Amino acid sequence: MNVFTVVKDNVTARQVAMQYGIKINRSGLACCPFHKDKTPSMKMDKRYYCFGCGDTGDAIDFVAKYFGLAPKSAAMKIASDFGLNYDATNRAPPKKIAPRKTPEQILDEEQRQCFRVLSDYYHLLRKWKTEYAPKSMDEELHPCFVEALQNISKVEYQLDTLLEKDIPDRAFVVSDIGKGVKSIVRRIEEYRRSQGDTGVHRKGRSQENSR
């Protein structure tokens, strides 16, 4: 058998993680080494799956990413470290061709991205509407306050549509926003940099107590 088959038949993702120093708790969870993980969010079993960053795979995938190796080099390393014998003359199995995504899957991915960005922007607009509201009639309007007044109702409608409407309505919102998503992301990042905040907030409207 070739090295891929031998490794997959004999070694689990949990075993390689423990072999290379990853601590796993009684629940089979470990801190993900592929993102800044403060609490264990990676489930280790025959395969691994991180609930934080979504990374998943088998023992070979884990070692390849952990050590920055090609899949075959990762498989050979595992075989060597675990004392597995394999037929070195066999070629590696052909790469699997990923199935083409359906229009519904593409729309769903684009919708999730739009919703995350709009949720961030909506939260920021609500903050601006309160923090930059004029204290007197003579005070000049702050640009952030003006931006909040101009956009908050539209963004609220777009979020409601993405949450509650049927596919044609949601598709229209995704299409309408289009490349504007990148502009919104830049706007949010520019403001946070100006405030010395480089963190990424993911607080949606469903987490707000009130509108």
Give your account of this protein's structure.
This protein has eight helices and four strands; from the N terminus they run H-H-E-E-E-E-H-H-H-H-H-H. The chain is mainly alpha-helical. The protein folds into two domains: about 80 residues, Zinc finger, CHC2-typedomain (DNA Primase, Chain A), CATH 3.90.580.10; about 100 residues, no CATH class. It has a four-stranded antiparallel sheet with strand order 1-2-3-4. Helix 2 packs parallel to helix 3, helix 3 packs across helix 4 and helix 5 packs antiparallel against helix 6. The chain is elongated, with a radius of gyration of 24 Å.
Record the SSE blueprint.
Elements: H1 3-10, H2 13-19, E1 29-30, E2 42-44, E3 48-50, E4 56-57, H3 59-67, H4 71-81, H5 103-131, H6 143-164, H7 167-177, H8 180-194
Antiparallel strand pairs: 1-2, 2-3, 3-4
Over all CA atoms, what is the radius of gyration? 24 Å
- Supply the helix-strand structural class: mainly alpha
N/C terminus separation: 62 Å
| Helix share bin | 40-55%
How much of the sequence is in beta strands? under 5%
Count of discrete domains: 2
Query: What is the number of strand segments?
Result: 4
Strand order of the largest sheet: 1-2-3-4
Can you write the helix and strand succession as a string? HHEEEEHHHHHH
Largest sheet: 4 strands, antiparallel
Unreliable spans: 198-211
Average pLDDT over all residues: 84
Q: What is the helix tally?
A: 8
Identify the overall geometry: elongated
